[in-house]
User: Which sequence fits this backbone?
């Protein structure tokens, strides 16, 4: 081996030793050709009142991204999209019952960009019209209740033959009124007809 080859071999061994020592000591090597700096997109999606909205779908589209990435918000409305290649992005926020919102954002390498979004309820797209024809509607009169009992029926029923007992047979009549009549010693309950005191 020549002197020049021997010196080159010693230099190579010394460089290799220095790189190995730098790697073992925990310091970053000067040259790291295998990693690309990426960006992170973070933020919070809220309602009009400021409360966080869970389950909002966030769609990330970019020429820098292979395909499309979709994430959703946590229970607090927060979201995090790490490891994104740097570039121009279209970020779309969508959920059932909410207006769809699209925003453009630029992500720089090795940066974190905060993008907060306030969502609003979607406008009602359906309506219903109800019309009525007075000729086909119900009659606009007060309801009436009638009861007619024949003497033969009253004779067979197990009730006493007083007017009060016969009146209590009619629909809508109850004995839930206040007790007693003013100025008498009667302590029977008053009659109620369709909820009104008789």
Assistant:
């Amino acid at each position: 081996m020549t002197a020049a080859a021997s010196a080159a071999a010693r230099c190579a061994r010394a460089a290799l030793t220095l790189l190995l020592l730098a790697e073992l000591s925990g310091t970053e090597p000067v040259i790291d050709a295998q990693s690309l700096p990426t960006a992170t997109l973070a933020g919070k999606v809220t309602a009009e009142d400021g409360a966080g909205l869970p389950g909002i779908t966030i769609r990330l589209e970019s020429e820098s991204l292979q395909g499309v990435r979709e994430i959703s918000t946590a229970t607090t409305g927060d979201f995090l999209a790490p490891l994104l290649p740097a570039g121009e992005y279209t970020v779309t926020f969508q959920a059932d019952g909410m207006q769809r919102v699209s925003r453009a954002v630029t992500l720089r390498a090795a940066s974190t960009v905060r993008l907060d979004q306030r969502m609003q309820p979607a406008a009602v797209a359906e309506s219903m019209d109800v019309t009525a024809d007075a000729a086909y509607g119900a009659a606009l009169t007060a309801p009436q209740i009638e009861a007619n009992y024949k003497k033969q029926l009253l004779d067979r029923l197990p009730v006493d033959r007083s007017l009060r007992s016969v009146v209590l047979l009619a629909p809508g009549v109850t004995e839930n009124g206040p007790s007693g009549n003013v100025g008498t010693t009667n302590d029977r309950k008053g009659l109620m007809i369709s909820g009104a005191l008789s």
Remarks:
- The domain at 39-118 is CATH 2.60.40.10 (Immunoglobulin-like).
- The two ends are 130 Å apart (CA to CA).
- The first helix runs from residue 3 to 24.
- The chain has a mean pLDDT of 80.
